[in-house]
Amino acid sequence: MSGSPTPDHRRKRSLSRRGMIAAGGAVAAGTALTPVVFAAGDSDSGSGDTTSDTASGPAGTEPQKFPATRTEAATGTAATTAPFAISYVGVRWTGAEAGAGIRFADGKWQELGGGCATVENGGTALVAAGDATGYELKAPQGASGVRSLAIDTTGGAGKTFRVPTEPTRVRGVQYLSRPAWGADESKRYKDGKVNSPETYYPLQTITVHHTDTPNADPDPAATVRGIYEFHAITNDWGDIGYHFLIDEAGTLYEGRYSGDDGIPAFDPEGNLVTAFHTAGFNSGNLGIALLGNLTGQPPTDAAKASLIRLIKVITRFKGLDPQAQVTFVNPVNGVTKDVNTISGHRDWLQTDCPGQTMYDLLGEVRAAVAGTGS
């Protein structure tokens, strides 16, 4: 990614949220996804909410406390302990992807790999630790640079964020903004500079993922914070890798930071911020991740409905045909890939993501978005 990585990178925005409402009007499909169109209310959102609202509610905020994420970093494979109950362990190494493992106090080795995140020249994994206080790693033969991060997203001291007082919405579809799930923006910085400065390109495709985290999650916002820590720090991406995440209750979470204008994922000109969900094919490719493991279990009805609503809003006002096959052209290096407009992670790279059951449902999702489903 390019651009000046200084802390004052955030661009001044010419339109306020109230200004977006006042501007009003609609554009034909295929034109730029302006703040006006993307933010307006939509009676066809499927959510039952027909109010005309901006991409956020009124500008008011109120302080809310979230547990500060605690971490304990380690290098190598030797047994490691943490001074807190571990929610997740993020691991990364250089070398062969297959053959890595982790074990906790029960003594059983778990194989690492096969999840959603992919990196060049190595492997990476995020593993639920079940409040363990220690772990041991096993590296693939010949691997090097093994490093890990014990992550606790629930037990840290309270950290205050300014959270919108009214629900934030994208064209009638309600979502939790970054402060509303406790995103610590300082994690986007490294050595005093923004680690991954924002770049923007026209939207071409949408890719569906699963997070490969436990199902029946009792605290999905904490899991989102754990994924953020894993992606931003362990994988050194500087932010969470997805544009949006969806939990089993159908709650939508804003992912990758895209600016201060209040429009999730896009800039005011309608260009998509580059995220980190499909290595080598990120620019112009929007990533949506469903929380959980969808290998042998389908998404909940609520999660699937939210996925369809969100994709419908985006494709409608960017003029994308949800049932088309397209040639994606990476605007950075010209690399091409023939995919569906709405694809799964495995259509791009060698991975199990988004899980077999979710992948099998993508045809149904495309039809529902296009309005041709049953």
Features:
single chain; 374 residues; alpha+beta; Lysozyme-like; Jelly Rolls; 2 domains; six-stranded antiparallel beta sheet; five-stranded mixed beta sheet; 21 strands; globular; disordered N terminus
Description of the molecule:
By secondary structure, this protein is of the alpha+beta class. The protein folds into two domains: 17-63 and 167-370, Peptidoglycan recognition protein-like (Lysozyme-like); 70-152, Jelly Rolls (Sandwich). It has helices at 17-23, 35-39, 220-234, 301-318, 356-360, 362-370, and strands at residues 61-67, 70-75, 80-94, 101-103, 109-111, 122-138, 144-152, 158-164, 168-170, 173-175, 189-190, 193-194, 200-201, 205-210, 244-246, 252-254, 272-273, 285-290, 325-329, 336-340, 342-344. A six-stranded antiparallel sheet has the order 2-7-3-6-4-5, covered by helices on one side. It has a five-stranded mixed sheet with strand order 16-15-18-14-21, covered by helices on one side. Helix 4 packs across helix 6. The longest helix is centred in the last third of the chain and has 18 residues, at 301-318. The radius of gyration is 20 Å and the shape is globular. The N and C termini lie far apart (42 Å).
Biggest β-sheet: strands ordered side by side in the sheet: 2-7-3-6-4-5
- Fraction of helical residues: 10-25%
Shape: globular
What are the low-pLDDT stretches, counting only 5+ consecutive residues below 50?
1-58
* DSSP strand content: 25-35%
List how many beta strands DSSP finds.
Answer: 21
